[in-house]
Amino acid sequence: MADSPYPELKNSHVPERVGRPWTDYKPPPSAPVWAVISGFGSFHVLVAALELGVFDTLADRGANPGIPPAVTAPDLANELGVSAPHLEALLDSLAVLGLLERVGGRYGLNDTAARYLSSDGAASMASLVPVAPGPLDNWSRLADTIRAGRPAQPIDDNPAEFYRPLVEGTFATMLRAATRADLQVRYSAMAGSRVLDLGAGGSPWAIAILKACPDATAVVNDLPGVIDIARRTTAEHEVADRCEFRPGNFHTIDIEPESYDIVVLGHICRTEGPGGTRRLIERAWKALRPEGRLLLADYFIAPEPQWSPHSVLMAMTMMASTTNGFPITAAQTAQWLQEAGFESLRLIEPIGHQYLYTATKPRRPDAQDPN
Ligand SMILES: C[S@@+](CC[C@H](N)C(=O)[O-])C[C@H]1O[C@@H](n2cnc3c(N)ncnc32)[C@H](O)[C@@H]1O
User: Fold this and answer.
1) In a domain, 288, yes or no
2) Closest ligand 1 atom, CA of 174?
3) Residues 293 and 192 in one domain
4) Claim: this prediction has a pTM higher than 0.70
5) pLDDT for 98-157, tens place per residue?
6) Is 275 left (phi over 0), alpha (psi -120 to 50) or beta?
7) 170 lines ligand 1 (CB under 6 A)
8) Which of 93, 128, 163 is the last residue of a domain?
9) Whether residue 200 has its Cβ less than 6 Å from ligand 1
10) Domain extent at residue 275
11) Are residues 282 and 347 in the same domain?
12) Residue nearest to atom 4 of ligand 1 (CA)
């Protein structure tokens, strides 16, 4: 059979034939390697810009009709009290990363920066960026972690110190995901729901449900050193009076059997390992009333890991800094849910890159159909 004229379609050296990844005769570009090398610097460029107040200062200018929203590097350096040539290098780096606009020597917020990087942005990630990778020291010791099968300084040793800034940083994104999830989950159509939010952090899931359901109530759990964040956020969203706060370890706190309509496991499974995750699914099952629903949000890995790069890298982040962190796959999670007895599994993506399994505890076989 004649070979295809296009190298990528050649059937003479595909993996199935030669038993190794596809390769070409011409040398490949080094761009993927450079992208990784500059990834380290790019992260610190963004963290420095946030720390210096670059985005918030530009946002303030944009909000003030009396002054032009875009500014030269020396003028901005003057405003921030920093070195002008150094700031210019930083601003140009942000521009090439697509995080600022540079036109005619003036810098201003682009849409990405306005939405995600200013503190008041509609979906601000400003406080998330610095803490999202976990302790940076653990990354520089990653090879040791992989040799030993455990990080040198797992966050499990001092969870509150790690989780407090993390849940503050993720709150805005998770609240958007939890609010948008209603379009597919339709929790707002449920009357008098009782919600259990385990490892709630700032409790974005309970808040979204309580705001959509005026007669719902929630039990909100987190570690004693973190739960005050949920007390504050639920008060800010005016739902605290419908919450009972239950501090403690979610593996051991008392949970009333068959008492909840919704149980939320929001981004708590991938640090727990397979054993811990199965125990949490089992606890959720016992806590739910028949026909109650489990909402399990996480970064699930697709059947071919390269289809879900964000989830794969989030799993690596967990393994770099936790004792039990593991890559949680969509298929394995579905199997655990089914083995626990759940039915009607659905995997949804309420907002980009945020995934949620919904699963229903079936009605008892002997229950009468109300219709
Ligand atoms: C990644 S955050 C997720 C927060 C929130 N559920 C969400 O979806 O945004 C994980 C949360 O689980 C809490 N957590 C971790 N281990 C816990 C444990 N053993 N018992 C109770 N909470 C725990 C952490 O304090 C943190 O608030």
Assistant:
1) yes
2) 9
3) yes
4) yes
5) 999 999 999 999 999 999 999 999 899 999 999 999 999 999 999 999 999 999 889 988
6) alpha
7) yes
8) 128
9) yes
10) 148-360
11) yes
12) 201
